Amino acid sequence: MGIFEINTSKSDLFEKLSKCEKKESFITYIQQEFIDANMLVHKYLYYTFESVIRYLKTIKNSKYKALLNVSTEVEVAKFSTYFEDIKIHSTYNEYDYVSVGCGDGDKDASILKTLNDKLKYTENINYIPLEFSYYLILSAITKVKTKCSNYVDIYPFNVDFLKYQEFIDKFNKTLNSNRHAIFSLFGHTIGNYLETDLLNPISNLMRPYDFLLIGYEVYPDMEVYRRNTGHYDNKEDRDFLKYPLKLLPNFSGHLEEDDNLKFEITKDISYTKIEGCFSVVPTLKDTGINLTLAFSTKYQVELLKQFFKDYFNELSLKYIKNYESSNEFPQYALMILQKQENIQDLKKKALIRIRDLIESQQSCKDELIKIKRDIEGGLIDNEDILKFIIEPRHTGSVIVDRVNKWLKSNHNK
Ligand SMILES: C[S@@+](CC[C@H](N)C(=O)[O-])C[C@H]1O[C@@H](n2cnc3c(N)ncnc32)[C@H](O)[C@@H]1O
Predict the structure, then answer these.
(1) What distance in Å separates the CA atoms of residue 13 and residue 23, rounded to the nearest whole number?
(2) Which of 93, 298, 299, 309 has the fewest CB atoms within 10 Å, i.e. is most exposed?
């Protein structure tokens, strides 16, 4: 086993809480964030030990269990299909695995087993869970340690993944520089945040060619949701959603009656950036208080795909593939994205490589100098060609040949 310590990285909040793990500090933080965000932020639902017990009870109730089963089925099985497939086309056989919001670690243990069984690792797989809940990350570590101890090294980050600046340096050091990483955002966590708020930090943690797998719940429209839903509206779920509020003096008196928690369905842009998708927002309504709890946006496959194609160019997150479960409900899908290299960075790398080749490969020096000028002048700006130039196994003459063919065909267009 590799490093195995829970304190690898801590957000500000955790550092303060570990020194003084009292409910009062928690209340101060939760209240402040509540005031800033004007709602109870999703991560607090899993924060205390009692909340986690409620969460684990919730995922065992029949409606939720059906969703959990189908999500696990799609996420784990399609993951396996995809990486089996790219193994054939890729020079990479080894990946680090980063689980964003790992939860109890059940799915991650299956993913790690799949990676180990399907790809031929020469060294251990690095498992890097990023999780706000101390109790859930402990659960994930324990499960992975028990089920995959022979082939996994664990580097846990007990952090708020939105505050990536606080831990990015340490995080980068744990990633293996000879491997790409696979990031997972499973269990419909994407629906619990404004998509851009969540995907900006994740994209910043990713390096070029790393993968991001997003598991999400699918609903074609609001009416279909109304007809099929019900997994929130039961005792366990209400109990889970309301629990953090019991710790807040301002709200604890309003929590006994079940019927003051309403599940509103809205297309408000403060919950989703994707026009046409809708959010379910549990709201506690009572005389004098009106409190929004963590929300959940439901996606239509085509709209989410289009969103990635249109909006995420600037984050260089490229849409690759989407797998959907059957039309039965609950319906679930897995989207695969890949981080692309920024074209300016690619150009810089290509120029460094050409300069090295000019020094070392005299036989095609003049052609290489011309290629250098063409890159600088913006004539060569094609991603595939630039990647071809950078590839270490391509010699100067092979590069000259490939670039000339491309320039010719580009000229003829
Ligand atoms: C919906 S659960 C999904 C759990 C697991 N990935 C699965 O598929 O079953 C969301 C998870 O993300 C974690 N989480 C939510 N917000 C977070 C944040 N800001 N930083 C770190 N973890 C967070 C929660 O504690 C929880 O474990």
Answers:
(1) 13
(2) 309
Output the CA 313–ligand 1 centroid distance in Å: 26
* pLDDT tens digits, one per residue of 111-167: 999 999 888 888 999 999 999 998 999 999 999 999 998 999 999 999 999 999 999
Query: Would you say the CB of residue 46 lies under 6 angstroms from ligand 1?
Result: yes
Contact 129 CB / ligand 1 (< 6 Å): no
Q: Where are the domains of the chain?
A: 12-220+299-339, 343-412
The DSSP code sequence of 92-146 is ---EEEEEET-TTSHHHHHHHHHHHHHS--SSPEEEEEE-S-HHHHHHHHHHHHH
Helix spans in 207-335 (H): 222-228, 235-246, 249-252, 301-311
Q: What is the pLDDT of residues 367-410, one digit of tens each?
A: 999 999 999 999 998 888 998 999 888 999 999 999 999 999 88
Residue 45 CA, closest ligand 1 atom number:
25
* pTM, 2 dp: 0.84
Under 8 Å between Cβ of 216 and 305: no
What single-letter amino acid sits at 137?
A: I
Helices 396-412 and 343-360 cross at an angle (nearest 10°) of 130
The CB of 332 under 6 Å from ligand 1? The reply is no
Counting as low any pLDDT under 70, the low residues of the chain are 1-26, 35, 88-91, 229-232, 250-259, 286-289, 313-314, 412-413
Closest residue by Cα to atom 9, ligand 1, is: 187
Count the Cβ atoms, other than its own, within 10 Å of residue 75: 25
C-alpha 134 to ligand 1 mean position (Å): 11
CATH number of the structural domain 12-220+299-339: 3.40.50.150
User: How many residues in total does the chain contain?
Assistant: 413
Q: What share of the chain is helix, strand, coil (3-state, %, to 5)?
A: 50, 15, 30
Both tokens of 229, joined, read: 């839903």
